Amino acid sequence: TLFRSAKAAAADMEPEILEYTVWLAIVTLISVLQNGFFAYKVENENTKQNTKSFQRIGSPAFERVYTANQNCIDAYPTFLVVLWCAGLFCSQAPAAFAGLMYLFVRQKYFVGYLGEKTQSTPGYIFGKRIMLFLFLMSLAGILNYFLIQWFGSDFQVYIKMITSTISPLLIIA
Questions:
Q1: For 36-52, what is each residue's pLDDT tens digit?
Q2: At what angle do helices 92-114 and 15-47 cross, to 10 degrees?
Q3: Separation of alpha carbons 143 and 45, rounded Å
Q4: In degrees rounded to 5, what are phi and psi of residue 33?
């Protein structure tokens, strides 16, 4: 049939592929739910203005929620790229953990922006640090790939050890 069961489709996928991507997929789906929550907050604030159509300008509360949502949307594609590159080229577990931390601080940023803009600054700065960490993980994994191809040297074990050690430090940084 045209539509197969999810179990049959999962059985056809390589177990190794699922093993190396499942946590990244979970973090990605959580981020989709978070984006839905942010969009709901914008819609909810828009309906409080008693307007039939969506407008970008309105009450100060609407402008704050709209701007916070837009700022999160602007960073979202970059987050997804570095999350998946770090997880695929370097190590899935630290990348997924950093991704969850990013979602947590993005929530903190969003909620902080709804109050005073200065309350959102710690979440913004911390989110950029996590993005940098994911970017460096991606870079290290890609560099390791080329070292294997050109010189036969594999530093994957060392890179995983370093990233696994550093990722919990993101909580206190």
A1: 999 999 888 888 776 65
A2: 0
A3: 46
A4: -60, -40
